[in-house]
Design brief:
The structure holds two protein chains of two kinds. By secondary structure, chain A is an alpha+beta fold. Chain A is built from one helix and ten strands; from the N terminus they run H-E-E-E-E-E-E-E-E-E-E. In chain A, strands 1-10-9-4-3-2 form a six-stranded antiparallel β-sheet, with no helix packed on it. Chain B is α+β, with helices and mostly antiparallel strands. Chain B has 39 helices and 28 strands. The longest helix of chain B is centred in the N-terminal third of the chain and has 31 residues, at 59-89. The chains are: A alpha+beta, B alpha+beta.
Chain lengths: 139, 972
């Protein structure tokens, strides 16, 4: 690759060489811009969600979490975010969560029942909260 | 947009000397100018709130916003058409390569300017769109995530989008326009044409604002095609590469010639046309959750028609001072306490707009001071639109009420009103599956009787939602389908005797005296005078009194009337007939009014219901006497369903007598009750003292109104009345008696049951019937005629309850004639008759429970109790032999030879198909003999005698020890 570049540089003559060095001079600028973007583009961690003690049996949406409570009281939670294109999941239709943007359907175990989403919901870690209820921590 | 005439396409389309390029340039400039006005008042921290403030109180700002919107759309459309015009004519080759490259590269900036404008609405549509476009930007190789953040910022903050929309991207687009058009300002003709046309449109068509309640979510119209494409893709990367490929092709167009150019243009045209078609699909064929629902766009974010100068801030001021706006009174008192922040575009008026759930709620400006609703539903907490929908962002009555749900809670809208995500999301699904909605059991029995398939044999239970038009189903539609919960409530007013259906309202809508009075005044005003919408709103609560159940359950098995001690009569009783005007003299309402007076004069010995039926007072159910309401026994899991589909009523009934009447009641600790019960406890403010436990059904449902002490004794607190009742354990005879171990509690404790042994159902092909499901008249009518009603102790039969492991041979329960009928499915003159005869008894939960029990003879020597029908049953001694003889009171049916009212022949066993239930049957010959053997003893020994007492403990031992004078029945 380096060999080819030298050949091209030689063939380009003085003007090509000047352009090449100008390009090199732009590299620090590009690097600085990239660093700036990478700093502003850092992904925000998902905030914990407080699940109340009386969260109903079955599926429900609590804040940014999809919550499933079984008949025996166990609670699981996922990100209320469609794995297709990130739409917020805010509604439960019967026993499934349906994405309002493109119609992906997720079951009570977070798995995809119907696309276009291809992967299950991102799970949240659920722990008991002091004073009742649960806390669903982001992944 | 060519400044030099030489560069303009030769056959460019012009109107009044204005080309598409001129229009696009003018639209851009006007868009930028109007945007500058909006930018001053805009606040990215509450974008939707600011726009809502404009919509509600500042028609000037709405006009500027509309102009901004429409000029932007015009700019987009004209730019695309202008570019295509150039390419079609080949004039793009006259443009310098660098200029063309910059124009092509400006296209993403153009798309971004449009899209960012949509995102700056900050409403529900825009927030979802922001997530999607950030995800698409994230699919750009190497710099994806960073590019997304650079263009759209992080989280839901709109500062970055705002900066790019108002400055960066706009400047880029403007530079390219100037470079291409070679002039700074557009032509005056273009500006005038665009200004006048967009101003006119802006007065009557406003872009909507999605309040987050409407489940229908859509992006901007020019992205609906992309949204459709994304619906079929698992990820966004094909879109990114497709866009890059498109730009490359566009860049290459001027360099192509001959067949290459022709085919490339055809390809571009095809893509453009395909995208337009997909956009149309997204606009007109996609509904909630991207389902296929053809129709005109109706989302909250779609265009809202209406003259925007309908409400001026001055009117609003007057309204807020307590004057009138939109035809109703308003008052600052209704301000829920949180006022919207001044937006700069609405001034002090906006500062006092009622705020609900974080948004301005325009409804409360006109409908201020509405009272009557409890804490959970009061307008100050959830507003009006949470339940009723409509448009909260306008004060113009017509637009505010567009799409409004006048009576929310019906099954059709329950999911988006009462059952929306933030309120009661699980309940509509439960109600949908509830037996009171599906009518599965009744439909199955009806179809089986008609000999039709679809009675739930082995498959899923039938449902009223899939009812067809077969003879059985048409019979059901006309005679039975008026009662299901899915029937919509369409008129204001309380739930009463003639109410049917109503979804959530059927149980939860409560009118107090003040609400009723105002409703009456409002309805009277419809005949003249000024109508003021009632300010006393009926309440919605869980204190469902018995009137909710009465309308439907006073029919069929008459549970409600039984419970209150009303026995139905075939006609007005003689005691009040003399006071009634004759039918010939004019019956109808006048007769009913007189009858009511007459009934009252008889010290409530009789009662006439609003539907005209007469009832006589007989002993009511002891639970009714003690003040228990229906819901004191029937839990929420029963009346609303537990969420799964059931086959019949008994599958849905979960409570048993033993749940409240046991020596040691089953109980559950407060910490272990289900979430729904916990919520109800919290709503009622129930104090839970240390050590308290609640009752529990065998299915595990908590009975939170039953308090169980440490000794297992219970006390019930009435859900409706609050009255406390001690729960008594069963008597020793009930729990320690081996002889009657197979009997249900109600078998002995039922005082009476309504009995109509000869009902007739006929079909009149030429008469006009009424389909309760479609609410339409139909050709052909089913008629039902009742025989004489009786109030007698019920017949007994056997049912195998799979849930009752303690009674493997079945439980002896109460039955009444269900369907003893002759059916002709082809009663028309043409064709052969299709007649059938049915003799079915139905299990009846009598709801006529008394503390005292039936006498021994009323079961062991009674022909009605044993299923033989009415008549004389006697034990005779002849020639040293004892024999039971039965003389029926009614004649024999020619079809089966049994008395008309019988369930089973005397001394006979009936094969299957004798009951409306598959698991129920009359006594067999052997069972009849065992029962009548005791009956023979009772001819000499009183039921309370010591001999019969010993028989209760061990009948066989007592029988073996019988005296020589005891005569056993001879069955030969």
């Amino acid at each position: 690759m380096m060999f080819r570049a030298r050949l091209r540089l030689a063939a380009a003559g003085p003007n090509g060489r000047r352009r090449f060095f100008w390009t090199l001079a732009l590299a620090p600028l590009a690097w600085g811009l990239e660093r700036l973007l990478s700093r502003t583009g850092a992904a925000l961690p998902a905030a914990p969600v407080r699940i109340p003690e009386d969260v109903p049996e079955g599926l429900s949406v609590v804040g940014d979490a999809v919550v499933h409570r079984t008949a025996d009281g166990r609670v699981r939670a996922w990100e209320a975010r469609c794995t297709h294109l990130g739409c917020r999941l805010d509604r439960v239709s019967g026993d499934v969560v349906v994405c309002p943007c493109h119609g992906s359907r997720f079951g009570a175990d977070g798995r995809v029942l119907e696309g276009p989403a291809a992967r299950p919901l991102d799970p949240r870690r659920v722990v008991r909260a002091e004073g009742g209820g649960w806390i669903a921590h982001g992944g | 947009m060519a400044g030099d005439r030489k560069d303009r396409p030769e056959s460019v389309a012009r109107l009044f000397g204005v080309s598409l390029g001129d229009v696009a340039a003018a639209a851009f400039v006007l868009c930028a100018l109007s945007g500058a006005f909006l930018a001053v008042a805009f606040d990215t921290r509450d974008a939707a709130g600011v726009i809502a403030g404009w919509l509600l109180a500042n028609s000037g700002a709405v006009f500027v916003r509309n102009v901004h919107y429409w000029t932007a759309q015009l700019f987009l459309v004209c730019t695309v058409l202008h570019a295509w015009e150039h390419i079609r004519l080949g004039t793009e080759r006259r443009v310098g390569r660098g200029v063309w490259l910059r124009m092509v590269l400006a296209l993403p900036a153009l798309v971004f300017v449009m899209l960012s404008g949509f995102l700056l609405r900050g409403d529900a549509d825009a927030r979802q769109a922001l997530r999607i476009v950030r995800e698409i930007a994230g699919a750009v190789p190497l710099v994806g995530t960073r590019l997304g953040t650079f263009l759209f910022g992080a989280g839901e903050q709109l500062q970055v989008v705002y900066a790019h929309h108002a400055a960066t991207a706009t400047i880029v687009v403007w530079l390219v326009i100037v470079e291409h058009a070679r002039r700074l300002w557009p032509r005056a003709g273009g500006v005038a044409a665009v200004g006048v046309s967009t101003a006119a449109v802006s007065l009557v068509l406003s872009p909507g604002l999605h309040d987050g309640m409407d489940p229908l979510l859509k992006g901007p119209w020019y992205f609906l095609g992309l949204q459709e494409v994304l619906h079929w893709l698992q990820g966004p990367w094909p879109v990114v590469w497709g866009a890059v490929a498109g730009l490359v092709v566009l860049w290459a167009v001027p360099r192509l010639s001959g067949a290459w150019r022709t085919w490339t243009l055809r390809l571009l045209l095809t893509v453009l046309a395909g995208y337009a078609a997909l956009t149309a699909v997204g606009l007109f064929f996609r509904g909630e959750n991207w389902r296929w629902e053809p129709g005109w766009p109706r989302g909250r974010g779609d265009l809202q028609p209406g003259f925007i100068l309908g409400t001026e801030p001055g009117d609003l001021d007057a309204g807020l001072r307590g004057g009138e706006a939109g035809g109703a009174q308003a008052s600052p008192r209704a301000d829920p306490g949180r006022a919207s922040r001044p937006s700069g575009a609405g001034g002090s008026v906006v500062a006092v707009l009622p705020m609900v759930l974080g948004r301005p709620e325009g409804c409360l400006v006109c409908h201020a001071g509405v009272t009557g609703l409890g804490a959970a539903h009061r307008p100050e907490a959830i507003g009006c639109a949470s339940c009723h929908g409509g448009n909260v962002f306008t004060l113009a009555k017509e637009r505010a009420h567009a799409g409004m749900v006048r009576i929310p809670g019906n099954r059709a809208d329950a999911a988006r009103t009462c059952g929306q995500a933030a309120c009661h999301p699980t309940l509509p699904g439960r109600m949908e599956r509830s037996i009171m909605n599906t009518f599965a059991g009744a439909i199955a029995v009806n179809r089986r009787t008609f000999g039709e398939a679809g009675g739930g044999e082995g498959g899923s239970p039938p449902s009223i939602s899939t009812l067809g038009h077969s003879p059985a189903d048409s019979h059901f539609r006309q005679l039975c389908a008026s009662c299901h919960l899915g029937l919509p409530k369409e008129a204001w007013g309380p739930i009463g005797e003639t109410s049917r259906g109503g979804g959530c309202n059927a149980c939860h809508l409560t009118y107090d005296a003040a609400a009723l009075k105002e409703l009456g005044a409002y309805q009277e005003a419809s005949f003249g005078g000024r109508r003021v919408p009632p300010r006393n709103h009926p309440d919605l609560n869980a204190r469902a009194d018995d009137r909710r159940c009465f309308g439907c359950h006073s029919r069929s098995s008459r549970i409600s009337t039984n419970y209150e001690g009303w026995h139905e009569l075939n006609e007005a009783p003689q005691e009040v007939q003399a006071e009634l005007p004759s039918k010939a003299a004019g019956g109808g309402p006048a007769m009913r009014t007189a009858a009511k007076t007459a009934a009252e004069s008889q010290t409530a010995a009789f009662r006439q219901l609003e539907d005209g039926r007469w009832f006589r007072m007989v002993p009511p159910d002891v639970h009714h006497e003690r003040g228990l309401a229906c819901v004191d026994c029937h839990t929420a899991q029963e009346v609303m369903g537990a969420g799964h589909v059931v086959r019949d009523k008994l599958e849905q009934v979960r409570v048993r007598c033993e749940d409240c009447h046991a020596a040691n009641l089953a109980a559950v600790a407060p910490a272990a009750v289900d979430p729904e019960s916990r919520r109800l406890l919290a709503l009622r403010g129930t104090r839970i003292p240390e050590g308290l436990r609640f009752g529990r059904t065998r299915d595990g449902d908590a009975l939170i109104h039953v308090r169980v002490d440490q000794n297992g004794r219970g006390r019930l607190v009435g859900k409706v009345t609050g009255r406390e009742v001690d729960l008594r354990p069963p008597a020793r005879a009930c729990s320690g008696d081996r002889a009657h171990a197979r009997l249900a509690c109600a078998t002995c404790h039922t005082a009476w049951a309504p009995r109509c042994a000869s009902c007739h159902t006929t079909f009149e092909p030429q008469a006009e019937g009424f389909d309760h499901l479609t609410q339409e008249a139909t050709r052909g009518a089913w008629r039902e005629r009742a025989g004489p009603f009786e109030a007698t102790p019920p017949t007994l039969g056997v049912r195998r309850d799979l849930r009752d492991a303690g009674r493997p041979d079945g439980t002896i329960e109460t039955y009444v004639p269900g369907m003893i009928l002759r059916l002709d499915k082809n009663p028309s003159a043409a064709g052969a008759p299709d007649r059938s005869f049915h003799r079915l008894y139905a299990r009846l939960s009598t709801h006529t429970i008394r503390r005292e029990v039936r006498r021994c003879e009323s079961c062991h020597a009674d022909p009605v109790a044993l299923g033989f029908g009415s008549g004389r049953l006697r034990f005779v001694l002849e020639q040293g032999r004892g024999r039971w003889l039965f003389e029926p009171a009614q004649g024999s049916a020619p079809e089966d030879g049994l008395p008309e009212d019988a369930w089973v022949g005397f001394g006979q066993t009936r094969p299957g198909g004798a009951s409306t239930r598959d698991d129920a049957r009359p006594f067999t010959r052997e069972e009849q003999q065992r029962i009548l053997r005791v009956g023979a003893c009772l001819t000499c020994h009183a039921g309370e005698s010591a001999a019969m007492g010993r028989a209760l403990d061990d009948f066989d031992a007592a029988w073996r020890a019988r005296g020589a004078h005891c005569m056993a029945p001879d069955w030969d």
